[in-house]
């Protein structure tokens, strides 16, 4: 048995290895230069992410490569998600810097934990084994718990971190329990082998469905879907805005990958079972997210509830892949690529909106209330326009990226025969349009309360403008990204 | 009934009771000690399953290290149990209902039918089979990737713990040996040349 082992091919995992090595380098660099030249930390972090992006791009060949005893998969989907992930994390680092400096929170640990959670997300995206999926998730979550508590003198942040930690540990427990049941039924933890075992009918259906319930509960928690959403508003509100920006953007990509790998790659044969569960999660999330967001006066809380409803839309696409237990190749592909498209669009919009809060915040002032945006047009017409684009896009108003994301999801749902749910989702989006448009209204028609000039470094202004432009321009060419998503999935499924 | 089966039931019963006491004990120290008892029984069950290494690791790591640390923390913190329990009774009915429902549902799936000895027969290993050796071999070959990931998670734990607890006190006094050694006499001592002072007879007072 000893002779069977082949040394794993490290090349597919080159970006992960590079990121890990660079994180350790930054850990040491902080000792040498960190105290004096803090800006080097953020520069090194960005260099690391760009380097990983280059490595990912160079090694992208469209083949499905398994390595590390079939625990790691490098396919086009993982490469695509990782590239979007690097962009998102670079944006987080650039947006956060001035906010953190103003609050004396800019420590090397921030950059390190961001890098380690990025590593965790990459591991999740490339997971071909339940164990690596779980470990990637823990790496991500542990770093996030610590990041939420980074402002340790703030009681609100500490409380948010505590809630996140306790509920997150519970969700991890549920997920692990579900995985152990799947292992009990199939005798393997490899995602491909699990699918094989179920396909050949070797596994006991009752145990599998029992495990599936726990898996879906764990996934729903990580996505923040109703009824596992309790942590989302509190954590988004309590965490420093720079951390909220991070939690609300990049991890959604990893959560999408986790859902796809577990449910579609691993348990596709049980689709008629998990479809129903996802349907309940999606309907409840879209309803509660949009209704609760109306009552919020705090923009961070409002965006948290809107995030819940966006995740509901993503789940709506995930459940539309299979019709009556039968996978129609075109419909399935369409549904999953619209889910992927939705996740990417949401990450772009979420980065921009929280970036706007960071832009208006300064030392001693958190621009987290909706009132803080009053009369933004008079203070700075350009960024008021950027925020308007973001809000319009989130509301799903035509010709922004958010509209086409919603449109493709609804189209997939209608094609799968869920006309009722699609109509319900449209109605709820109309309700949701109210609170997005309210932000636009107070920016353009109310007198400014806060008249301080907007101070932000140039890199942040440029990137935030680009972010707004991307939301607008990608909305004009929706087919190109949709094609990219479809191609990615065709080559990876 | 086989002797091993009796041992299994005894160990399981004590483990479940101890686990119950962990969450119901009034005194946090008692709760921690009941957790130790629970771990002991679980490791006994693992021994029955011929997983000797895991049983030993559970005792050494969890009972020996983690729980002792836990006890220290519990004793150092002044936890007011009564205050923590204030809302206990108001949440109990709903919590108990959901809990019992889940236990009933899980019991239906997990009871003998699917996970009984018929469905999952035990394996008897040869006498010279080394559990430790097998684990070690797997850990460093097939499972090397998750193993490395686990170490990264530990590293994150260290970084997070340092970040959350390390405070540089501004008023703390500390020495810098390098500076102390490099010090020169002229840094500390200023030699000033002064004219010699003479006693001068005071004018106007002489006779």
What order do the helices and strands come in, and which of them pair?
The complex is a heterodimer of chains A (493) and B (207).
Chain A: H1 14-34, H2 39-58, E1 65-67, E2 72-74, H3 76-102, H4 108-125, H5 130-148, H6 155-186, H7 191-199, H8 205-223, H9 231-238, H10 241-248, H11 250-266, H12 271-294, H13 299-319, H14 329-360, H15 376-379, H16 381-395, H17 401-415, H18 419-445, H19 458-476, H20 478-492
Antiparallel strand pairs in A: 1-2
Chain B: H1 3-24, H2 28-48, H3 52-76, H4 81-84, H5 88-110, H6 112-115, H7 131-140, H8 144-165, H9 177-182, H10 185-188
Description:
The complex is a heterodimer of chains A (493) and B (207). Chain A has helices spanning 14-34, 39-58, 76-102, 108-125, 130-148, 155-186, 191-199, 205-223, 231-238, 241-248, 250-266, 271-294, 299-319, 329-360, 376-379, 381-395, 401-415, 419-445, 458-476, 478-492; strands at residues 65-67, 72-74. Chain A has 493 residues and is mainly alpha-helical. Chain A has a domain at 270-493. Chain A has a two-stranded antiparallel ribbon. In chain A, helix 4 packs parallel to helix 11 (250-266), helix 12 runs parallel beside helix 18 (419-445) and helix 13 packs parallel to helix 17. Chain A is globular. Chain B has helices at residues 3-24, 28-48, 52-76, 81-84, 88-110, 112-115, 131-140, 144-165, 177-182, 185-188. Chain B has three domains: 1-82, NADH-ubiquinone/plastoquinone oxidoreductase chain 6, subunit NuoJ (Four Helix Bundle (Hemerythrin (Met), subunit A), Up-down Bundle); 89-119; 128-167. The longest helix of chain B has 25 residues, at 52-76. Chain B is mainly alpha-helical and 207 residues long. The model of chain B has no long low-confidence stretch (mean pLDDT 85). The radius of gyration of chain B is 34 Å and the shape is elongated. In chain B, helix 2 (28-48) runs antiparallel to helix 3. Classes of the chains: A mainly alpha (493), B mainly alpha (207). The A-B interface holds A 2, 5, 8, 13, 20, 27, 68-69, 71-72, 107, 109, 112-113, 116, 119, 123, 129, 131-132, 135-136, 138-139, 142-143, 145-146, 149-150, 152, 184, 204, 206-207, 210 and B 106, 109, 114-115, 119-120, 137, 141-146, 149-150, 152-153, 155-157, 159-160, 162-164.
């Amino acid at each position: 048995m000893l002779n069977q082992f082949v040394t794993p091919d490290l090349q597919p995992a080159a970006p992960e290895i590079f990121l890990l090595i660079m994180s350790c380098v930054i850990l040491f660099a902080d000792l040498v230069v960190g105290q004096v030249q803090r800006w080097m930390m953020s520069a090194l972090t960005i260099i690391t992410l760009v380097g990983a992006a280059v490595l990912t791009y160079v090694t992208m060949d469209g083949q499905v490569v398994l390595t590390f005893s079939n625990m790691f998969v490098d396919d086009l989907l993982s490469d695509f998600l990782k590239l979007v992930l690097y962009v998102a994390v670079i944006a987080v680092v650039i947006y956060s810097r001035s906010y953190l400096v103003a609050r004396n929170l800019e420590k090397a640990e921030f950059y390190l934990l961001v890098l380690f959670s990025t590593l965790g997300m990459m591991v999740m995206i490339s997971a071909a084994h339940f164990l690596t999926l779980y470990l990637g998730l823990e790496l991500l979550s542990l770093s996030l718990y610590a990041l939420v508590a980074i402002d340790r003198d703030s009681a609100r942040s500490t409380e948010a971190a505590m809630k996140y930690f306790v509920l997150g540990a519970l969700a991890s427990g549920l997920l692990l329990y579900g995985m152990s049941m799947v292992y009990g039924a199939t005798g393997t933890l490899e995602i491909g082998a699990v699918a094989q075992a179920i396909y050949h009918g070797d596994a006991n259906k009752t145990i599998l469905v029992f495990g599936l319930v726990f898996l879906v509960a764990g996934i729903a928690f990580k996505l923040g879907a109703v009824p596992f959403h309790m942590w989302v508003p509190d954590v988004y509100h309590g965490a420093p805005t720079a951390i909220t920006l991070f939690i609300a953007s990049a991890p959604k990509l990893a959560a999408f990958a986790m859902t796809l790998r577990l449910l579609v790659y691993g348990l596709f044969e049980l689709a008629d079972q998990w479809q129903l569960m996802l349907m309940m999660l999606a309907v409840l999330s879209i309803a509660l997210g949009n209704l609760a967001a109306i009552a919020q006066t705090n923009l961070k809380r409002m965006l948290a509830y809107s995030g819940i409803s966006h995740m509901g839309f993503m789940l709506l696409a995930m459940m539309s892949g299979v019709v009556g237990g039968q996978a129609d190749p075109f419909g399935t592909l369409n549904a999953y690529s619209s889910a992927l498209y939705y996740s990417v669009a949401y990450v772009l919009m979420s980065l921009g909106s929280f970036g706007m809060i960071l832009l208006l915040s300064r030392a001693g002032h958190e621009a987290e209330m909706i009132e803080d945006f009053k009369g933004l047009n008079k203070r700075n017409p350009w960024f008021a326009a950027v925020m308007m684009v973001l809000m319009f896009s989130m509301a799903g108003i035509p010709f922004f990226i958010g509209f086409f994301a919603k449109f493709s999801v609804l189209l997939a749902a209608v094609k799968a025969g869920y006309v009722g749910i699609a109509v319900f989702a449209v109605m709820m989006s109309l309700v949701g349009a109210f609170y997005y448009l309210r932000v636009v209204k107070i920016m353009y028609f109310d007198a400014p309360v806060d008249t301080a000039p907007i101070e932000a470094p140039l890199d942040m202004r440029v990137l935030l403008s680009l972010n707004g432009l991307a939301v607008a321009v990608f909305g004009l060419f929706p087919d190109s990204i949709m094609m990219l998503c479809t191609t990615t999935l065709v080559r990876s499924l | 009934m086989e002797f091993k089966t009796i041992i299994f039931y005894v160990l399981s019963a004590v483990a479940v009771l101890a686990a119950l006491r962990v969450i119901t004990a009034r005194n946090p120290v008692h709760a921690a000690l009941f957790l130790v008892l629970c771990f002991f029984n679980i490791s006994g069950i693992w021994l029955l399953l011929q997983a000797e290494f895991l049983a030993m690791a559970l005792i050494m790591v969890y009972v020996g290290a983690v729980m002792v640390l836990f006890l220290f923390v519990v004793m150092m913190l002044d936890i007011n149990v009564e205050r923590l329990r204030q809302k206990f009774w108001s949440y109990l009915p709903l919590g108990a209902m959901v809990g019992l429902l889940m236990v009933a549902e899980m019991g239906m799936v997990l009871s003998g039918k699917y996970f009984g000895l018929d469905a999952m027969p035990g394996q008897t290993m040869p006498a010279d089979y080394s559990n430790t050796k097998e684990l070690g071999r797997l850990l460093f070959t097939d499972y090397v990737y998750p193993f490395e990931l686990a170490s990264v998670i530990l590293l994150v734990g260290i970084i997070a713990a340092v970040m959350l607890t390390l405070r540089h006190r501004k008023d703390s006094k500390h020495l810098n040996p390098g500076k102390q050694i490099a010090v020169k006499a002229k840094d500390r001592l200023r030699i000033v040349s002064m004219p010699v002072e003479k006693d001068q007879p005071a004018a106007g007072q002489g006779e």
